[in-house]
Amino acid sequence: MRFYDTMFCRSNVLLLLFSLMAATGALAQVGQSPYTVRGIGNINSMATARNMGMGGVGIGNTHPLFISIQNPAMLGYNAYYTTALAGFSVESRRLATTDTQDRLSSGGFDYLAVAFPLLRNKMALNIGLSPYSTVSYNLQATEPVQGLPNSNATVLYQGSGGLTQAYAATGINIYKGLTIGGRVSYVFGNITNEVSTTMLGDTVAATTYTAYYLNRTSFSDFMFTGGIGYRKDLNTERQTYIMGGISYELEASLNAKRFYSAQRLQGAGNSPIYSDTIANNYPGKMLLPAAIGAGVSFGRLWHYMVGADVRLQNWEQYQNFEQGNNEGMGNSYRVALGGEWTPDYFSRNYFSRITYRTGVQAEKTPFRINGEQINEFGINFGVTFPVGASGVHTSFLLGQRGKTENDLIRERFFRINLGVTLNERWFERYRYD
């Protein structure tokens, strides 16, 4: 490779990363759901588009070309290329109750990261940015006012925001396929909850009043995750192997500050007749519970892999800003099973080098509504189109969350994930030709 070819590739990598970082600021986060009224919303699994094609499997497997960021110990197996990766997703979600239906659409970025070797084939460093959680809901209820038979009160609940993590992770191969790793994340962001109650008068000429409450809480602090991995070659000639991994996310107490205001509005134009700031930068804490994940996989390098993951998190230990209130959250678990297959990665036929994936995922979410914990299930499909040592990943998810019984909401959704992985050998000298 000529020197200017190498510099051109590196410039393209950096240009893509900076473009994606600028673009993410203009995109909403994916995952609108009325269930995100609880806790800190939907929790991101840190699965890349490649992992999502297999149901999110990634704690106990990786690939020489396409890194997994779910378990930092897996970086110990990817200390060869400098890798840039980014992912986006779009989603369409259909909501239904026993009486009504609605449809929501959203889109946003999933991850942005760079990984490069510190010690060739032994130790690697990964820095990145990804959402930790997403809050996005809009609920409305209309009820009669007691004592005024001809009056109604319309209550609108709205929520937005979430937490983001900027992290640095490293993994090292310490002895014959045994790796350990760690990740330090700076978690930050804010969650806004709004409640407006509008009183409709019992006559046409009656004045309409609205009570509006705004609650915005900002969070920031550090979170730590450790991991361990092990890979055993079963047949060197056929390149078959078995691999496993465990990750553990420590309990974290995040610093929090709250802004709380109230207003009283009058008339159709919502003219304020009363406004008060109840709290401004009022300090508090939020306790995020510990989480543990484990995965195992079996495969033949460059040809196929099957794996399974499980992740548990004790959300009954969660404490919101008030400290001691867990909002009725329940302990959650997530199980994933999936695999990938490449007909012939080294073939001259491009279509034989395409990788195909499928998987399933099942989750008991931490959201407990009307005394019932909400379940979720999904079926995944994915494809990777190779571009030299790099690749473009697409995955598709068909899923359902909740049900219509017991005054709950059923969500059926379709999500498309798009990811890019760019691999370059940066820290090497090249000869001029």
The first-level CATH class name: Mainly Beta
Helix content range of the residues, please? Answer: under 10%
The shape, in one word, is: elongated
Tally of distinct domains: 1
As laid out across the biggest beta sheet, the strand order is 2-3-4-5-6-7-8-11-12-13-14-15-16-17
The whole-angstrom Rg is: 24 Å
- In the CATH scheme, what's the topology name? Porin
What do the pLDDT scores average to?
A: 87
Unreliable runs: 1-10, 21-28
Number of DSSP E strands:
17
CATH architecture: Beta Barrel
CATH-level-4 superfamily name: Outer membrane protein transport protein (OMPP1/FadL/TodX)
Category by helix and strand content: mainly beta
How far do the termini sit from each other? Answer: 8 Å
Strand content: over 45%
Topology as a string of helices (H) and strands (E) = HEHEEEEEEEEEEEEEEEE
